[in-house]
Amino acid sequence: MKHDLRIVFMGTPDFAVSTLKTLVNNNYNIVGVITAPDKPAGRGRKLQESAVKAYALENKLNILQPTNLKSKSFLEELKTLKANLQIVVAFRMLPKVVWQMPELGTFNLHASLLPDYRGAAPINWAIINGETVSGVSTFFIDEKIDTGDMILQEEVDIAKTDTAGDLHDKLMHIGSELVLKTVKQIEKGKVTTTPQKDLDTVKEAPKLNRDNCKIDWNASPEDIYNTIRGLSPYPAAWSTLINGDDTLEVKIYKASVKKEDHNLSVGTLVSTKKTLAVAVTNGYIIIEELKLPGKRKMDSQALLNGYQFLPEAKML
């Protein structure tokens, strides 16, 4: 039986815009767009709207920005939209009263091959852990986080040089197409689901924080390299630089590995006129792009032109 779809779309960042755009371009009836409230940003603390809101405004879509997803006024407004399908892409956890509302259910697009990398930062952790394959999954939402019955999945290769930004863009595009395929199945009444496998060792994707973004220079060169690219361009891997009397927090965006025997202690900085390297076990991490406090992001050669590293400089 074919369904006449009335869709509510929920999402906030750029990653979600690609999917919303695909649905609009395919003439689906988007009766409402739910996105995060505007937030103060930048030095002037001006209110900034989400990427999804900006797109929805351009396309004259009906926008809701609830602060509380359980509030009576929001739930009443949501009901008046008479949606029979809800689609969630990079939003927040929904209360049961919301995801149970539409007749055809609420499904989510997740940027991993579930059940692996459930959680807030699947793109980053796939690269940090050195994965060579990732992908996207669609599933119907249930009471737990990212555990509902699977609808569709698609794989994508991760190149050895891919950053989190690169993988984000790949998954954003194949994800929007996977959502379209999922919607077409639901529309035709031909959707089939599979319960997620209950694996003993599921890889997690916890929220990124200051602690898990700090570089451990005692790790293997490959692990350090994967950490740097897995956190680039955002939020960026960081380290403490000790350079004479300066103790600075440095963000590192791009690096490479050089395997070489040496007798330097881990964390020792080695600089020439053109290169900046950190001694690690069995080699060096060559820093190619970084940012010092109060400075713009720059390549290491540009930094070396105007900043002097003392012989005893080190990374902690």
Molecular structure report:
With 316 residues, the chain is of the alpha+beta class. It has eight helices and 16 strands. It has helices spanning 14-25, 51-58, 72-80, 96-99, 122-128, 164-187, 221-230, 300-306; strands spanning 7-11, 30-34, 39-41, 46-48, 63-64, 85-89, 106-110, 133-140, 150-157, 237-243, 246-259, 269-271, 276-280, 283-291, 298-299, 314-315. A seven-stranded mixed sheet has the order 5-2-1-6-7-8-9. Strands 10, 11, 12, 13, 14, 15 and 16 form a seven-stranded antiparallel sheet that branches.
Q: Main traits of this protein?
A:
Rossmann fold; 2 domains; 26% helix; alpha+beta; seven-stranded mixed β-sheet; 316 residues; Methionyl-tRNA Fmet Formyltransferase, Chain A, domain 2; elongated; seven-stranded antiparallel β-sheet
Query: Helical residue percent?
Result: 25-40%
CATH topology of the largest domain: Rossmann fold
**What portion of residues belong to β-strands?**
25-35%
**Span between N and C termini?**
62 Å
CATH architecture of the largest domain: 3-Layer(aba) Sandwich
Main sheet? 7 strands, mixed
Q: If helices are DSSP runs of H or I spanning 4 or more residues, what is the number of helices?
A: 8
Radius of gyration: 23 Å
User: Which CATH top level class of the largest domain fits?
Assistant: Alpha Beta
Sequence of strands across the biggest β-sheet: 5-2-1-6-7-8-9
- Please give the domain count: 2
Question: How many strand segments?
Answer: 16
Q: CATH homologous superfamily of the largest domain - what is it?
A: Formyl transferase, N-terminal domain
State mean pLDDT (0 to 100 scale): 95
Unreliable runs? none
Globally, the shape reads elongated
**SS content category:** alpha+beta
Order of helices and strands: EHEEEHEHEHEHEEHHEEEEEEHE
